[in-house]
Each structure stands twice: as structure tokens, then as C-alpha cells.
Amino acid sequence: MSPIGDPMPSPGVAAVDRALSILAAFEDAPEPMTLAELARRTKMYKSTLLRLMTSLQEFGYLVQFADGRYHLGPTPFRLGAVYQRSNNMHDRVMPLLRQLVADGTESPSFHVRHDARRRLCVFRVDSQHSTLDRVEAGMLLPLDRGAAGRVILAFDGEKGEAYDEIREGCMAVSFGERDPDCAGLACPVFGPGGKCVGALSLSGPKPRFTRDNIKAMTTLLLKAAIRLTRALGGPTEALDGVLAAAADDARPSRRARR
Questions:
Q1: CA 74: distance to chain centroid?
Q2: Per-residue pLDDT tens over the stretch 25-47
Q3: Would you kindly state where each structural domain of the chain is located, as residue ranges?
Q4: Rounded CA gap, 91 and 71, in Å?
Q5: Quick one: fold of 14-75?
Q6: How far apart are CA 78 and CA 81, in angstroms?
Q7: Nearest 5°: CA angle at 248, between 186 and 209?
Q8: How does pLDDT run across 51-94, given as a tens digit for each residue?
Q9: Over the range 127-159, which residues count as b (16 or more CB within 10 Å of their CB) and which as e?
Q10: Does an H or E element contain 110, and which?
Q11: GTP-binding: present as a keyword of the record (predicted)?
């Protein structure tokens, strides 16, 4: 059986694929799950699950609570901490997200591609507004819905006029694509060689995404993306050009200034 969310057969070891499918079942599970719930999610027999889960528990990937339900154990958390220490993205991204919030934007996030259909919200800081959209670090979200997902698809070479426009303007805006009450805008972040390494986004309730607010937040988001791209050793020419064009659009005409 292939892992959850991956319709293609895996060329790997079947037992490993099944074990990883069990772990993947917890990605969008808000609470611990019973064996029956895991069987429904993974489409595995309970006897198969129990054999695999014994090994996962032994190595700390899963824990079983007193009521019989299962959840992720300490090992995934430990590996996540090792990952953050090794690539120090946290120290590069989080200050930029906090500064965006201090500047009055909607909630900023940093997303990367997870697989063929989903993106991962790696970092997130809530805005200072009283109402927020429902996004948290660690969430898996669709690639084909939402500004951040469409930016990632565009710079990964997705074909289509809409994606051509995103590549040209280094910006995507979405209204109600993933959540009918929310909106967002996003731009790419580049690494060495000009490869898009992720998307910076701002998201929140749709009524606050007015034309004036979008213009103001676009400028702030582009500046943050340029700073992060430079920190990662990527080229900023495309982002610089879009930022300069946005500044020209925002500048009042000579007649208006008189």
C-alpha cells in the first residue's frame, strides 16, 4: 500500500511504506486515535497495524495512552528539533515574520512543498488582529488552493496562463480558495541558483483584504522576501523589479501632487 496522499506505488520497501503511512495518518488528526480509526485512515488490517506499530512504539515514533488510543511519540519531535538546528531556517525566517506583524500585516507564514499535492506550513506567526485564519505551523495544506500553494506551483514550472502571471509578477492573491472566509497573498523566496525554496504569505479574514491593504502588505511582503532571499544566497533581481514597479504605482502623479 502506498503512503497516504500518494496515489502512485512506491518503489521502496513495502513494510517501510506501511509504517510511514501510519505516521502520516496523524498529520491532520487533532486528537489521539483508536486502532479502529487508524485502520480506517490507513486502509490496513488491524493485525497488520499492530505488528508495525509495535516497532514504531519501540523506537519512540508512537505512544499508546491508558485509554488505548495512539498518538505520535517523542522521536518525531526530537528529529524536528535536529532538523531546525541543522538548517537554521528558524533563525532566518521567524524574525522576518515577527517584523511583518509589528508592521501591521495579516498573519505571516512560510510554506514549502511537501509532496505532489500538498504544501507544509513550516513557520507561522499570528497577527495582532482579534480574528485570525486557521493556519498553524506543521499543517499540510493543498498546493492548488491558496496563494502560497500557487506560488510554489508556479515556480516549480506548472503550466498555464495564471501561473505565467504569477511568475512574471512574483505575487499571488487568493480570495476564498481554501477557506471561503479568508484571503491571502504570497511571493516566492529564492535560494542559490534561483530555485524557489518556499513561499512567504500573509493570510487572514477576507474583509480585511481591501485594495489599499493589499497594496501596503504587498510592499512589506516583497521586502521581507528580498531579505530572506539574500540571507539564503539567492538572486533578488526579479523581486527587486516587482518592488520597484509597486513603488512606482503607489507614487502620486505630478498633477496629483500640485
A1: 23
A2: 987 777 899 999 999 999 999 99
A3: 14-75, 87-249
A4: 29
A5: Arc Repressor Mutant, subunit A (1.10.10)
A6: 5
A7: 35
A8: 999 999 999 999 999 899 999 998 888 887 776 666 678 889 99
A9: beeeeebebeeebbbebeebbbbbbbbbbeebe
A10: strand 107-113
A11: no
